[in-house]
Amino acid sequence: MSVPVQTDPKRRLGILFSVPLALSLLFFFVNLATERTDTRLLETQNLSWNVTQLRYLATDANAAERGFLLTGDDSYLLPLKQAKAVFPIQARFCESYARERPDLQPRLQRLVALVRTSFNQADQVLETQRTAGFSAALDLIKSGASETTINQLRAAAGDLQSAIEREEEDSLNRQRNLNRWAFAFFAAGSLVMVVVLVWLYNVLLSYLHGRDSAHAQLQALNAELEARIEERTRALTQANEELQQFAYVASHDLQEPLRTVVSFSQLLANRYQGKLDEDADEFIGYIVSSSRRMTDLINGLLTLVRLRKAGQPTAPASFEEMLQEAEISLQAAIREHHAEIQHGPLPSLVVDRVQFSQVLQNLISNAIKYRREIAPVIRIKAERDSSNWVFSISDNGRGFNQEFAERIFGLFQRLHTRDTEGTGMGLSIARKVVERHGGRMWAQSQEGVGSTFFFSLPVSLEVSRSCDIIQNPARKQGASLYTEPRA
Fold this sequence. Notes:
Number of domains: 2
Radius of gyration: 58 Å
Number of strands: 7
Number of helices: 11
Strand content: 5-15%
Distance between the termini: 84 Å
Strand order of the largest sheet: 2-4-5-7-6
């Protein structure tokens, strides 16, 4: 059984609209042909009227000539003079109307020639009257030349009028046929347009009904999806809270047995160092170092859990003061390795003071930890653009391959061997602190030259002077919590 092929609605619509368009074009062309036929018919009627006028001019000239000879009154010559004056104009009109009618031109030329001959004969009679008298002029008329010319003129005019009437009849027939076709095309186009409009109306109603139904279904699906998302969000939130609680409890509970392991390992190392063989001393060292590393990992996990639970800060914090706190915490390492820390003006922003102190401490500690054979030099800067404060902590340490610039921010990710202290959690925690405040963190490095760690914070965290004065009255007495950057 063959499956019926469904026509594309756009194609169907195009076909339906092309039919009345084609009929409209046909109606337009028929109207143009009708207008040309009307113009030709009007020219034919004008030609017929001018031919009649030419015949009347010849008749008036002949009558004026005879009236003058019978009465001798010059007033009878006025129609002749008027006819001779009007004749060239009428002749030009006839020639212009017959220009596109080659079948009528010979007849028209003969008629014009006969009218001109009639005028010449009248002039000849009048000239004879002036030179030889009325008797000679009457004898010339009685010769019959004028009468012959008039008869020929009547015959030529009749023949021309018959041809003009035939052409006029053809034009009228053509005009009637074109009018019928124009009416037929107009009626067919109107009927098709009505059909198209009715079809469009039904299609539009069907579309609106389908749209309303689809909208109702979409709203129902959206409501169902929102309910599912809300339920899943609640489940995920609950699971996340339970997981965080588990991590916190597990990390906290692991501290006590781990302290016991570390304590007894240190006792073994202190009491039996050198009393047992070298393997025992090495094994005790492994136990002590692994226990300490486990302690650091647990402390890192606790820091990460506390970071997720921490609330949003509301008070301004000076980065210069936080840098001083970080230097104090790292004073032993700074003195031991002769590290030099340089910094420019640093702003005050609404951030978590404790967390960013840890961020600065972590970055400076890494710069010292991953040093080269030369003394570490650490430079800290802060620059403001239109939307962010961008902090940079650069060093002259070992550096790393730039292709690992993202990997180092992963949890438990390390680029160096276990010989270097660390858990691989510091940079991950630092990035989460920055992202929690609406910023981002990245790094640039070159092996054997040094590294630069950047983090940005939005300028919306700035402490405005007016808000600062309201919240901190000590500012009126000169206490400054915000340092403007030097140009």
